[in-house]
UniProtKB/TrEMBL annotation:
It comes from Roseobacter ponti. It comes from the Bacteria. Keywords: Amino-acid biosynthesis, Aminotransferase, Branched-chain amino acid biosynthesis, Pyridoxal phosphate, Transferase. This is Probable branched-chain-amino-acid aminotransferase. Belongs to the class-IV pyridoxal-phosphate-dependent aminotransferase family. Its EC number is 2.6.1.42. Pfam families: Aminotran_4 (PF01063).
Length: 308
């Protein structure tokens, strides 16, 4: 990476993260001690599901929406969570308490099919129940990303069809996205803009993608991408606040001619896009993105309480 490169997950360095405790199947272990077996299905095959969530003022933002997606994904691949969503909340609460964490916290909740008796693919080889790991970090996205914006490059790696590996599944196996990100880096950009199998603009390798054209907000149809919780919140906020919003097919032609573009994800909320394929987005002014960002911040405060 060059020195001016960014990722959408850039956070201010926080030394407290050096000593965090991580949940591994009920044990809360120092990060240096937190380990899973080399026979774990997640390590061997990427056979697991995960969620990224944020804690604000002691409340997990949009917990129900995250759990809806998590449990639906696990059910699709016959992965028995082994607990209900109250059990997950309890594990999250204990992990936050062990780390004295209350706000500006990001968590990665990961569930795999568990430890296998042999290093092969068949799911029946995982016999001892799932592995649940919760990594929580103090996490404040860097301010500079809001002014600088992210640089995207359209990459050759496309989104998968639902009947191969449905891109709606937030699986541990993210190789399709990782390859896209590598291709973006090789093109001198921060993140990859991925097309769907028909050539329409779909999403980036780690976030959902929006453009603004003449006051209208456009995003892909939602096929071939992750059903982002933040994506849906942005669509709902636009609808509730009289901002025209459309889920539709569009091509790079409309992206390169857009007035604004931004990404959405739990980590960074809305991240402006500075350029796509080396072409600057619009004239650098971002009134609609900024309005949506404020609306989203208010929504977070309404649902999790005002900052202490
Ligand atoms: C490929 C991809 N797209 C989009 C998102 C954003 O989803 P959310 O808004 O639910 O964080 C994620 C987050 O996990 C992702 O991995």
């Amino acid at each position: 990476m060059t020195t001016d490169s960014h990722t959408t997950h850039d956070a201010d360095e926080d030394l407290r993260n050096r000593d965090i405790r991580i949940w591994v199947n009920g044990a809360l272990l120092h990060r240096d001690e937190a380990k899973v077996s080399v026979y774990d299905s997640g390590f061997l095959l990427g056979d697991g599901m995960w969620e990224g969530m944020r804690l604000y003022n002691g409340t997990w933002a949009f917990f129900d929406e995250h759990m809806d997606r998590f449990f639906a994904s696990c059910k699709t691949v016959s992965l028995d969570v082994g607990m209900d969503r109250a059990g997950i909340l309890d594990a999250l609460t204990r992990t936050a308490a062990a780390n004295d964490m209350h706000s500006e916290v990001h968590c990665r909740l990961m569930l795999t099919r568990g430890v296998k008796v042999k290093p092969f693919q068949h799911p029946s080889l995982s016999r001892t129940g799932p592995t649940l790991v919760i990594i929580m970090e103090h996490s404040t996205p860097v301010d500079s990303l809001q002014s600088a914006g992210i640089r995207l490059a359209t990459v050759p790696q496309v989104r998968g069809l639902p009947m191969s590996q449905d891109p709606k599944l937030n699986s541990h196996s993210k190789l399709n996205c990782v390859i896209a990100c590598l291709q973006a880096e090789e093109a001198g950009a921060d993140e990859g803009l991925m097309l769907d199998p028909h050539g329409f603009v779909n999403t980036t390798n780690a976030c959902n993608f929006f453009i603004v054209r003449q006051g209208e907000v456009w995003t892909s149809t939602g096929d071939y991408c992750m059903k982002g919780v933040t994506r849906q919140k942005v669509i709902d906020l636009c609808r509730a606040n009289g901002i025209p919003v459309f889920e539709k097919n569009f091509s790079l032609y409309e992206v390169h001619g857009a007035d604004e573009a931004f990404l959405t994800g739990t980590f960074g909320a809305q991240t402006p896009v500075a350029s796509v394929d080396g072409k600057p987005v619009g004239n650098g002014k971002r009134p609609v993105t900024e309005r949506i960002r404020k609306l989203y911040k208010n929504l977070i405060e309404e649902t999790t309480g005002r900052p202490d």
